[in-house]
C-alpha cells in the first residue's frame, strides 16, 4: 500500500461544508529543492537591473488591480474576511507593490573619504539571496505582499509558505505575481510545520508572522544558523480612554477594533482601560456600540464581524468569557458557520487568561484605572507590546504618558487596528523579534551592508 502524506485542506469558515481545496503537502525535501531553484534564479533577477525589477513590481500591482473583484471574493470565501475589509485589503495590496516598485531606484550605499591618504570608502547594501517568508491566514494578500515586495525590490528571490487556511489565496496571488516575474523568482510552497521548518533551515533570510510560540521557535532556528530573521507575533493590545475623551467616538473606534474581522488581527483591542470618571459612560457606550455591530455573512458588504477561522477559534472565545461578568455579547449566533458575538466583559480577576494571553477573537475586558500613570502600568503589565490606542482631548496629557508605554506603535484618537505600509511596523517584548517590517525598514532588513575600501594601486 502506498503511504499517504499529510493533506492540506481549506474550508470556508462561513460554511464549513464548502471545501476550497484539498492537496498533498509537498514535504521537507521538496521545500529545500524549491529554495535551491530560487537560489539559482536570484543572480539573474538582481543583474537584470533596477528598471526590470521596478517594471515587474509595477506590473504585479496592475495585475492585482485587474483581479481585485476575484481576489476579494476569494478572501471572503477562504478566510471569512467581510467583503468591505476584503476589498480594502486587495486595494492596499496593490498599493504596497506600487510603493516598492520605486525602491529599486533608491540609493544602495554611500561614498566616504578615507581618514588618511588617497582612496575612497564605499558602503553598499546587497541582497541576502533567498527570502523565506512564513505568513498567516488573516491578511492573505497584504502580509505576503509587504514581505515579498521589498525582498524582491532589493534583488532577493522569494519562497512563500502561507498558512494552510489561506492556501487558495496564496496560490492565486502567486499566479498574478508570476505573470510579471521570471521563473523561480517567486514561489508559493503550501504546507504546514514540516515545510515551514524546512524553509527556515534553507533560506538566506527569514520573515515570519504568526503565533508567539511558533515565531520564537523560528527566531531561534534562524539565529542558530546565523541568518537574519524577523518575527511578528502576538498582541494583547490596550485602548486607554481618559475622562476628557469624546466617549462616543472612542467607543466607536474601540468597538471596531474589538469586532472588526471577528477580532482576528494582531492589532485588535483586547483590553479597554477606562481612566477615572471615563469608566461609567464608556461602559454603557462601548457595550451599546458592540451590540450594534453587524454580525453575519461575510459576503454582505454591511457585515463587520464575520466568522472565526475555525471551530477551535470560536471555542477559545467562549472559554475565555466563561464565568465572567458580560456587558455585551457572550453568545453564539444561530448561523451555520463559526460565528461568535462581539463580547465585552468586566470584573476580570488578576491572572485571568484575558489579561495575559492573546485570544484572537472578538472579546475584550473593561478595566478601571485611577489615572494615566496607572493606565500605563496596566497596559505594560503583559508579555506583549504591539500597539496601544489612547483617547483624549488633551494631547499634552497624552504625550506626558506615551513614552512610558512598552509598545512599538501608539495611535491617538484612532482605532488600534490599521497599518500604514510606508512606515515601520512592529512591537516590543513578545510581540516582535528583530528589525521592523514595512517602509524603508523592510529594504534594510532584506539587504546586508558591506564596506569597500578603494586604494590607489601604487600609492605610498
Characterization of the model:
The chain has 460 residues and is of the alpha/beta class. The chain is built from 14 helices and 20 strands. The protein has helices spanning 28-47, 50-66, 68-79, 83-100, 142-153, 167-178, 193-202, 212-225, 247-259, 279-291, 311-321, 372-380, 395-402, 439-445, and strands at residues 7-12, 15-24, 109-113, 120-127, 130-135, 157-162, 186-188, 205-209, 229-232, 237-241, 269-275, 325-328, 343-346, 363-369, 384-385, 387-391, 409-412, 428-429, 432-433, 447-454. Helix 2 runs antiparallel to helix 4 (83-100) and helix 3 (68-79) crosses helix 4.
How would you sum up this structure in a few lines?
This protein has 460 residues and is of the alpha/beta class. It has helices at residues 28-47, 50-66, 68-79, 83-100, 142-153, 167-178, 193-202, 212-225, 247-259, 279-291, 311-321, 372-380, 395-402, 439-445, and strands at residues 7-12, 15-24, 109-113, 120-127, 130-135, 157-162, 186-188, 205-209, 229-232, 237-241, 269-275, 325-328, 343-346, 363-369, 384-385, 387-391, 409-412, 428-429, 432-433, 447-454.
Amino acid at each position: 500500500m502506498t503511504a499517504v502524506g499529510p493533506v492540506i485542506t481549506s474550508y470556508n469558515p462561513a460554511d464549513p461544508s464548502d471545501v476550497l481545496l484539498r492537496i498533498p503537502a509537498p514535504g521537507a525535501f521538496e521545500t529545500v529543492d524549491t529554495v535551491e531553484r530560487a537560489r539559482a534564479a536570484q543572480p539573474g533577477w538582481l543583474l537584470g537591473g533596477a528598471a526590470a525589477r521596478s517594471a515587474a513590481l509595477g506590473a504585479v500591482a496592475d495585475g492585482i488591480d485587474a483581479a481585485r473583484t476575484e481576489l476579494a471574493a476569494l478572501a471572503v470565501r477562504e478566510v471569512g474576511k467581510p467583503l468591505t475589509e476584503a476589498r480594502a485589503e486587495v486595494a492596499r495590496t496593490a498599493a504596497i507593490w506600487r510603493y516598492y516598485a520605486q525602491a529599486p531606484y533608491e540609493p544602495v550605499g554611500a561614498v566616504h573619504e578615507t581618514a588618511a591618504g588617497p582612496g575612497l570608502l564605499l558602503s553598499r547594501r546587497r541582497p541576502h539571496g533567498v527570502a523565506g517568508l512564513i505568513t498567516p491566514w488573516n491578511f492573505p494578500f497584504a502580509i505576503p505582499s509587504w514581505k515579498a515586495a521589498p525582498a524582491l525590490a532589493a534583488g532577493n528571490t522569494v519562497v512563500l509558505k502561507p498558512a494552510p487556511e489561506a492556501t487558495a489565496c496564496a496560490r492565486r496571488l502567486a499566479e498574478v505575481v508570476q505573470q510579471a516575474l521570471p521563473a523561480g523568482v517567486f514561489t508559493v510552497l503550501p504546507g504546514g510545520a514540516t515545510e515551514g521548518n524546512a524553509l527556515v533551515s534553507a533560506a538566506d533570510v527569514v520573515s515570519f508572522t504568526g503565533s508567539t510560540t511558533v515565531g520564537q521557535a523560528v527566531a531561534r532556528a534562524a539565529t542558530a544558523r546565523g541568518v537574519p530573521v524577523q518575527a511578528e507575533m502576538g498582541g494583547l493590545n490596550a485602548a486607554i480612554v481618559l475622562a476628557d475623551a469624546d466617549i462616543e467616538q472612542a467607543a466607536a473606534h474601540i468597538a471596531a477594533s474589538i469586532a472588526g474581522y471577528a477580532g482576528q488581527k494582531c492589532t485588535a483591542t483586547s483590553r479597554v482601560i477606562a481612566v477615572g470618571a471615563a469608566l461609567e459612560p464608556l461602559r454603557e457606550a462601548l457595550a451599546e456600540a458592540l451590540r450594534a455591530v453587524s454580525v453575519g455573512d461575510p459576503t454582505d458588504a454591511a457585515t463587520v464581524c464575520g466568522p472565526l477561522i475555525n471551530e477551535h477559534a470560536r471555542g477559545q472565545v467562549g472559554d475565555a468569557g466563561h464565568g465572567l461578568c458580560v456587558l455585551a455579547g457572550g453568545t453564539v449566533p444561530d448561523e451555520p458557520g463559526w460565528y461568535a458575538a462581539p463580547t465585552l466583559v468586566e470584573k476580570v480577576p488578576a491572572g485571568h487568561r484575558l489579561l495575559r494571553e492573546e485570544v484572537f477573537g472578538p472579546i475584550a475586558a473593561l478595566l478601571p484605572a485611577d489615572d494615566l500613570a496607572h493606565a500605563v502600568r496596566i497596559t505594560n503589565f503583559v508579555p506583549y507590546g504591539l500597539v496601544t490606542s489612547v483617547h483624549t482631548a488633551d494631547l499634552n496629557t497624552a504625550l506626558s504618558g506615551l513614552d512610558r508605554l512598552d509598545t512599538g506603535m501608539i495611535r491617538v484618537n484612532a482605532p488600534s487596528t490599521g497599518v500604514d505600509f510606508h512606515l515601520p511596523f512592529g512591537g516590543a517584548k513578545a510581540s516582535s523579534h528583530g528589525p521592523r517590517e514595512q517602509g524603508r525598514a523592510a529594504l534594510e532588513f532584506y539587504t546586508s551592508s558591506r564596506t569597500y575600501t578603494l586604494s590607489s594601486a601604487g600609492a605610498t
